[in-house]
Amino acid sequence: MPSENPNPSRDPAKLRSARWFAPDDLRSFGHRSRAKQMGYDTEDFKDKPIVAILNTWSDLNTCHTHFRQRAEEAKRGVWQAGGFPVEVPIMTLSETYMKPTSMYYRNLVAMEVEETLRCYPIDAAVLMGGCDKTVPALIMGATSANIPSIFLPAGPMLKGNWRGETLGSGSDVWKFWAERGAGNLGCDAWCELEDGIARSPGHCMTMGTASTMTSMAEALGISLPGSSSIPAVHSAHSRMATHCGRRAVEIAWDQLKPRDLLTPEAFDNAIVTDMALGGSTNAIIHLIAMAGRAGVKLTIDRFDEISHRTPVIANIRPSGDYVMEDFYDAGGLLGMFSRIREHLHLDCPTVSGQTLGECIGDAEVFDDDVIRPVDQPIAKAGGTFVLRGNLAPDGCVIKPTAAEPDLLKHRGPAVVFTDYPDMKARLNDESLGLTRDHVIILQNAGPIGAPGIPEWGMLPIPDKLLKEGVRDMVRISDARMSGTSYGTCVLHVSPESAIGGPLALVRDGDMIELDVERRKMHLDVGDEELEYRRSEWKAPETKIKRGYGQLYAEQITQAHEGCDFRFLHDGPETPEPEIH
Ligand code: FES
């Protein structure tokens, strides 16, 4: 006698995986017998949602070293809730070790996730990521597959320490490297910094791309409320992983899919959050790409509009003073949401089953210096601004809170480097006669030119100027910049120089005007001269002419379009695989 289903809305026959496991045929016999090959009994998997734990653990990803344990904890939650967990390794994107840049492979991982979710008997997925590009890659892939998914954020590492001073990932590396260039820091101190700056598993603990993007995942509603701020080694992080497993089973039954969550309003919530956090400029590229996967039209101008009216209230480096551990203790992202409620769409659904407003509930802030009241912000506006002008017809971005204020309105002569090796070779050439007034230009560092739009945008200050005490200059490139970086760096210039964008036409000595308040960047050269230079310009040769590199070069879009592959950006749904 078949047992009675106590909850008819939870009909096992409707599970996606039932197509693999339920039929009384030869193919399903193979699927069941091979589950038993792994030591499972029929009771372990029969009529249960199959939850894939997509694990981006690797010895080469230093930010995810706790993921083996977290995967087990997520599985515990799946078992508790009556699901069947399976762990699936996914290519990791290690910000530290991948060259030319992890960004080059974001879309490859998104493809892997999409196709993995599609081709296997998976009813729901736990997406385990944190190190920078792993976050958008996993969510982009899951959104294209549109299979119920919950994002499990890696959590920030503990704060660094050097001789009693707090160290922040990235930000303090650049700061002390500049001091070393200026001759103020010896080898011993530099080695001590190496020992103290990364002291536990977890992603960078400043408001870099990882902290920004895991917060975006929570603001979009695809992570559990409060999850993104929990430090990686906190016991609450283990409990959160188990909760993700339990919840994944529920969303499999409820068929709560990424496209149900990633609506235009949810993206507005993410942008508001990005601005209030003083988040990484990388968020612009990733959110546009993620929106494309969800069929939501998002442009860079939306970031500028929201930036205008959103105060920066998270006092986190590089825009502020603290790091993520302090942010968590001060109330975390939910605490921050409680202060910007009126900027958010509170009725957006989340993967928790509650609306965003319900998730915020009576969350509080416990330290007003770490999470500022809105009337005492770090900046009234300006998490990220979008600039335009004849140098960047399709836009470019700057993070004003991370710049020296006097440089935000500046006119100075260009010094041009045609690519990164050229800059490395000549930056310290004293015959260039560089002063703080110069504007450093780096060409051919964009999506196609570099390739991969690497994080070169915080171009180094020449040693001679460092020794004179200079710590910031106007720097312009078609590259990105690490979220942990700072300075008056104009980034993502679009279209990029390698495809003939105006940045390719700049020459030494041209005057460049930057006026951030008016959102302007102007190359002060006449149209006729620019036309002449364009007629002389030759496109650089494509560097990689086979395999993935060839696909990348043919399909990649520009920074203002999200740098997704054209054939992945949106388009029709892929049908379910046939099972014969
Ligand atoms: Fe992994 Fe910074 S290196 S997040």
Structural account:
By secondary structure, the chain is of the alpha/beta class. The protein has three domains: 48-156 and 203-360, no CATH class; 171-201, no CATH class; 385-536, Glucose Oxidase, domain 1 (3-Layer(bba) Sandwich). 36% of the residues lie in helices and 12% in strands. The protein contains 22 helices and 14 strands. The chain has helices at 18-21, 26-37, 42-45, 67-80, 106-119, 134-145, 171-181, 187-196, 209-220, 235-254, 258-261, 264-277, 282-293, 300-309, 324-329, 332-339, 356-360, 420-426, 463-467, 527-536, 547-555, 566-569; strands spanning 50-55, 84-89, 124-129, 149-153, 160-162, 165-167, 385-389, 392-398, 409-417, 439-442, 474-477, 489-490, 511-515, 520-523. The protein has a six-stranded mixed sheet with strand order 12-11-10-9-13-14. A four-stranded parallel sheet has the order 2-1-3-4, sandwiched between helices. Strands 5-6 form a two-stranded antiparallel sheet. Strand 10 (439-442), helix 19 (463-467) and strand 11 form a beta-alpha-beta unit. Helix 4 (67-80) packs across helix 10 (235-254), helix 9 packs antiparallel against helix 12 and helix 12 (264-277) packs antiparallel against helix 13. The two termini are 29 Å apart. The relative contact order is 0.11. Residues 63, 95-96, 131-132, 169, 203-204, 208, 210 line the site of FE2/S2 (inorganic) cluster.
Number of domains: 3
Give me the side-by-side strand order of the main sheet. 12-11-10-9-13-14
The bound ligands are:
FE2/S2 (inorganic) cluster
What would the principal axes of the Cα set say about the shape? globular
Mean pLDDT over the full residue set: 95
